[in-house]
Structure formats: structure tokens, C-alpha cells
Specification:
This protein has 756 residues and is an alpha+beta fold. It is built from 26 helices and 22 strands. The longest helix is centred in the middle third of the chain and has 37 residues.
Length: 756
Amino acid sequence: MILHYLKIAFRNLWKYKTHSLISVLCLAVGITFFTVMNLFVLRFTGYRDLPDVERRVEIMGSRSFLNLDNIDYLQSLHIEEMDSLIVGSFSQTDIELSCIDQNQRELPYMAKFQLANERYFPAHNLKIVAGSARMLNENEVVIHEKFARRAFGEENPIGLFIGINKGLEKEYQTYRIAGVVSGKVYSEEIHTDIYFPLTYLPNSAFTVQTTVKEGVSMQAFKKRMNQVYLEPGNEDSHIWTYSLDERYSEAIWIELGGFLIGSLILITGIVNFLKFIIQMFYNRQRELAIRKCVGSGVTGLFFLLFAECFCMMSMALLLSMCISELTYTFASQYMVKEITSWFELTDVYWIQFKVYGMVLAVCLLICLYPVWRIRRTSIINMVMVGTRRHVFRNAMIGVQMTISLLFIGASCIISLVMKETIGSQVSYLSEKEEEHTLMMKVNSIRMGLNQEAILSDIKALPEVESFTKTMFQPGSYISKKYMNDQFSYYVKVVTGMPDYFRFFRIPMQGKEVEAGATNMIYVSKAFNEQLQKDSVQGTVLLDDVEYQIAGVFEHLYKEQAGDTRNLGTAFLPDMPSRGGYIYFRISPHADMKATTDKLTAIIRKYVPETLPLEIQPLSGNGNSYEGTIQMMYYGILIVAFISLLVVALSIYSAISMDTMSRQKEVAIRKINGATPQVIAWLFGRVYILTYLIVFAIVLPLGKQVAIIAFQGFDAPYRWDWAISIFFGMALLIFLITVFKIWQIMHVNPATIIKKE
């Protein structure tokens, strides 16, 4: 019987294959989006899975995070109300190190490291898979299992050594690998590869946690800690303590917001899916009547409907996995690693299976209602009358319209905000020049030490016309303070080679200084106007350092025009010999892929394969925060398009089902002289009225939320996007109704009456 139900289900789905495919696609997108949002939320709420989380507290100084002296002092107090301290560094840092195997062969790697004490590992659910993680010796480290496999393969790393150059001067120090751990800390943006003892960088900022002993209330513990001062006699050095729920109170709102957004798309897909399945089930009244006549019971009718749900849900799950695979691959190229590292495909697949089971269970329960309703309807009524009430369906279309309007409005506002930020960035280069300019990051000590040799070889290539260097990538700055007689301001400062303006085609009034010139500076037109108001000429004082003004420019490359949050910008032609970003202008007739391969081959003469290279066209946004913002915008735009498509298909499907079940009524109306306008209003009035009601509710609420979310931007206050959305969706509903009415008006009424 199971095969029979599946065969019937597949036959009926194939009969309406277009609607079935759209329902599967919408459901797959809903599952994928909900899964991603679920993982995003879990990143902020993962602290709830920590051991003894209800007794866990975080300890901070009144001014900042604690340092090693503060930690030693706290431990020396032997406070009875708390257990030993859980200490880790405030943030991760990149480090270049050499892994020394048993054959004394050294290979350099880039790794993420942080500092930790021995209690950090069990307190963050990190399992010790080899050796020990006690780190009693200052020259011992603990590495992560993934890094161990990357650096040492299947070789046991316990007892082996890593070497570290502490700077470009080749100051070398070795550390013994004492332990290997597995797992991931919830608060880490990316897997930490190596853990050093706290004494490795004693002046770092540390996060300090502890657990309150059993029997001690949180209030009593806080009262005790209020009596502790990091500097005895200094009342400004008191301790702040937070329970983890207090420390991460904002995570509750992130969780609610994330689940709400993810659920909206999933609900849209489920509603569209169930509406199609159930309405198609109701339209098969005669088939169901015949099944009842031959003895089919409630169980048979239920499995008949549930088999179709199972087939479509299974196809949606497979399609969702394919979408996840493609999305992950694409995102890895265009989003920064700190974002893509939140999601691993194994976690994605596991959550998708759980969502699949949850949705299938919900469908199983919902399927009971139409079966119960069909069972209570007489056979004569099923054959002669059928069903015409679609209150649930129309309400769900209203929900879909609400969700679609929210996402379309969000994509419009984000697009306008991006135009105010990224869109206002100044570039004096043409698109082709940007495409033929390569940006290379000096991201390793090995590359920095061999930079001159690498540049010498690259400049010899006929495809390379010129090059320059900056300390930061385009759009990034450091801030320096400028003070006049009344106020202090912050100025955005970029450091690079003196030929920066010539390379990026930036108009500049002044002279290009010689390489190696000190205490020289170029100022923007906006900054120069402020200097003239302050009667400052020739020189300027920034961070108590006096600079001689060498020239005035309009904007730096990728500077945001009209930014009033800073006084202006400045450029320091004092580039360090190593580090930063190098830009190569490539001949317009050269093949960019072949040129990039040549550059890579030259660099690999000096930099081993184990160290990553970062070379990309200046026009690309791969692995940058600008690319991440654009990727997220495109994601919301795709979701908005899909939600709009779901609304369009829902209305199309609903009108199709209505016209199919009410063919006799339409035929009689046509015979009695009904015009296309009358029939169009007959089928389309429900959706037009629903849309007007939904828009009247969603617009003011959405506009207010946008004003709160995008404070300081003009986009939420504009009305053009709201008017465009209103008429755009209204036109879509109108065209769908007109198309279906055009179809039914071309059907011969006599054929329908004869068939009935």
C-alpha cells in the first residue's frame, strides 16, 4: 500500500508539476534561510551550553579588561565564594609560526592564537584528545586538532616543537606542544589554532570568568566582590561582576529577531506548500468520493494526502542541501572568513534534517484537518457541490504579502543606505583601470622579509606598468587628533608611498615629496578649510606631532564623500619598508588571470605553499567587509524576490484552483452576459482588498522600525521607495488576475456545461 500511495502522490504532483516545483523551491529556500539564521543565533547564545552556566560569572575591572597582574592579585586573595579563575585573551590574533616535525623539517604556517590558562579548556567544552592542557611550563603550548592535522598530518604532535619569529628581526623562540584539543568555543569567530600560556603576552587584555560555589547566592557573591579593589586604597579600581545572562543580555533580542526573520521565510514556504497540497486535495472531490464508495477509510485518505507531503518535503530537503552547498562555496569567495567560519556544512545539514523532521510532523498534524473535514462531508455533497470557502487560504496569502512587503522594503532601504555609504565612495580610476589593478596584501613575515626581491622580480614583468603601497586597504584609516583653541577633532589618516596620488589619478595641489621624507603631510580640502578658519598655515599639529603641509587634495581613493562624522582626511607619505598593501597597474592589453598566475609564481619562490596569498583585482570585493555587506544585501534581495514570487504564485495558484472548481459558475455568468471586468472582480477582489489592508498595516510599522535601525541616514524618511513598492505589487496582482481572466474568458461555456 505504501508504494501505491507514493505512486498516486507522484502522479498527482506531476499533473501540476509547475505548481509542485515552485512549492518545493519555496520550501527549500525557507529551510535553507531558517537554518542559516539558526546558526547565526546559536553563535550568540552558545554560552547557554557551557558547564555550570547558571553559576558562571564574568569579572571585569571598572576601567577595562583585566591584565595579568590583576589576575595574579585576585588569585592571591583566595576568595572562598568562588572557584578558580577561567582566563582567556580578549581576542584572537594571527601569528606566523614554523612547525618542526620529527625530521627537523620546518614549514611556516599562519595560525590564529590566543592565551589561556588550564581551566579555560574544560570550561569551554574543549576536549583533550592527546597530551595534557595544563600548560604548567611557560614554553609549552596546546594546539587544536584541526591545526594538528593541517601541519603534522597523521603524525602525533605531542612533544614536537613550533618556532616563532617575534618580529621581522628573526628573533626566534621554540615552544613544545603539550596537548591537543578539539571543539569550538562559542564566542570565537574562527577556530583558534594554538593556545599560549598567559605569560606569552602578559600585557594583553584578558576575559576572566569563574563559577560561584554551590550554596552561595549570586547576590552574596556580588556583595563580596564589591569589597575587592584591584589597587588597594584606590576606590576607582573596584570589580564589576556579571552573570552570563547579564553579560549577554542583548543575545536574547538577537535570538528573538533571528528566529523571527528566519521563521518568516520558512512559514511562507510552508504556507504556500500546504495551501497548494490541501486545495488540490479538495479539488479531487470526485476521486475521493469514489474512494469512499469502495470502502476507503480515514486512514487511507490520510496516507493519500500525507504521501504527497512526504514526497515534496523530501525533494525540498535535497534541494535545500544543494542550495546550501552552492551558497557556502560562493560566500567563501566573497565574504570575510570571520563570517563564513560561523557556518560549517555538517552543522547546516544536521539542522536541515531537524527542520525537515519538524516540518514533516507539523504537516502530519495539519493533514488531519482536511481528511476529517472530507470524512464528515456527504458523498452527494462532494460530487455535486464541492467546497468554496477559502478563509484559511486567503488569510495565509495575507501573511505571505506581509512577509514579502517586509523583505522588499528592507532591500529597498538597505540599497539606499548603501548608496549613501559605499555608493558615495570616490574613485578617480575608470572601471577598466580598477579591473587591471591588482591588490596584494603583505600578510606574512616571510613575504615581508623578501618584499624587495619580490618587487624587483614583479617589476621586471612587461605586463606591470607601475606600483605603489599603502599601509591599509582602500577605505580603511587610522584616526589622529587635531585641536584648535576651542575643540578637538579626529582626522582620518592614510599612510602610503609618495606616488599614491599619481597612481590613483587623484588631483592634488602641491608637490610630490621624495621617498623617505619625514613629517610631511597632505590634507583634504575639507580639513584645509578648517585650518584656514583656525589661521593655521604651513604646518599642522596631529597627536602632538608637527607636520609640514605638502599639498591639498579633494578626496582619497575610496573615501566616502560628504562624511560629516570626521573633520577631514590626511595622507602621510611615510610608508614603512615592510607590511601593508601593494598595488600593481597591469597593462590594459594583458590577460589578468595569466598575470595573476605569474605574480603568484614569483611570490612562491620566496613564500612556501603553506602560507596563504591574497591577490585580487582592485574592483573585486572578495573576502572584504565591503564584499560581505554587498553579499548580505544580495541575500536579502534574493529572499525578497523569492517572497514576492511566492505571493505571485500563491495568487496565481489560488485563482487557477478557483477557476477550475468554479468553471460551471463562470460559464453560466458568461452565458448571461458577464463582462471580463465582472469576472475579474469576482476572482480578484479578495486579493486586492487583502493587499490594501496589509499595506496599510505594514507600511507605518516598517517605516518606524527602519528609522530606528538606520539612524543618521536619510533613506528611511523618503517616500519614493514606499510608493514604488505599493504600485509595483498592485500592478503584479493586477497582471496575474488579468492573465487568468483572459485564459478563462477564452474557454467555450458550452464545453464546460457539457462536461458538467
